[in-house]
């Protein structure tokens, strides 16, 4: 389990009640859209508004606590920042599967950046296709 207060502090954010609740829901589901986060949080704390959820998601994404995962034809999903990995995103059901970034893939992305005179800060590799479940 992640220490949310420490994670927020490491990214120069206060550990507010709202942020702690949002992070708890995201950790529970792994990859989740803002509206789904709101549904989960509002079951426990009905006083929290959708605007508050949006504001905190945007801020935590800007500060590097969360990563936004764009989903073609759907709203983005969010995850708590973790080691670099590849997202396998199903264009049928929207499922996101994490695969760790291996040395060869990391070297290839660094090579692309270097040959393009691009200073690589971080990478997010998203592969879009159809998951096993949707193929059957």
Summarize the model shown.
It contains six helices and six strands, in the order ααβααββββαβα.
Order of helices and strands: HHEHHEEEEHEH
What is the helix content?
40-55%
Q: Report the CATH architecture of the largest domain.
A: Orthogonal Bundle
Looking across the biggest beta sheet, what order are the strands in? Answer: 1-3-2
Unreliable sequence segments = none
**Termini distance?**
34 Å
Number of strands: 6
Overall mean pLDDT stands at 91
Major β-sheet profile = 3 strands, antiparallel
In oligomeric terms, what are we looking at?
A: single chain
Structural class comes to alpha+beta
**Radius of gyration, Cα only, in angstroms?**
16 Å
Beta-strand percent range: 15-25%
Number of domains: 2
Task: Report the total helices.
Answer: 6
**CATH topological fold name of the largest domain:** Arc Repressor Mutant, subunit A
CATH top-level class of the largest domain: Mainly Alpha
The named CATH superfamily of the largest domain? Winged helix-like DNA-binding domain superfamily/Winged helix DNA-binding domain
Describe the structure.
The chain has 136 residues and is α+β, with helices and mostly antiparallel strands. It folds into two domains: 77 residues, Arc Repressor Mutant, subunit A; 51 residues, Ferric-uptake regulator, C-terminal dimerisarion domain (Dna Ligase, domain 1), CATH 3.30.1490.190. The protein is 45% helix and 19% strand. It contains six helices and six strands, in the order H-H-E-H-H-E-E-E-E-H-E-H. The strands form two sheets. The protein has a three-stranded antiparallel sheet. The protein has a three-stranded mixed sheet with strand order 5-4-6, with no helix packed on it. A hairpin with a 5-residue loop joins strand 4 and strand 5. The longest helix is centred in the first third of the chain and has 13 residues. It is globular and about 50 Å long. The chain starts with a helix and ends with a helix.
């Amino acid at each position: 389990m992640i220490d949310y207060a420490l994670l927020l502090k490491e990214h120069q954010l206060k550990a507010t009640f709202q942020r702690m609740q949002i992070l708890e829901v995201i950790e529970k589901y792994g990859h989740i859209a803002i509206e789904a986060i709101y549904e989960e949080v509002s079951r426990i704390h009905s006083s929290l508004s959708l605007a508050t959820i949006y504001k905190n998601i945007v801020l935590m994404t800007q500060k590097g606590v969360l990563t936004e995962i764009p989903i073609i034809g759907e709203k983005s999903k969010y995850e708590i920042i973790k080691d670099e990995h590849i997202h396998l995103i199903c264009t049928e059901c929207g499922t996101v599967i994490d695969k760790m970034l291996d040395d060869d893939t990391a070297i290839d992305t660094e090579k692309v950046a270097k040959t393009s005179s691009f200073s690589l800060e971080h990478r997010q590799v998203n592969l879009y296709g159809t998951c096993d479940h949707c193929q059957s």
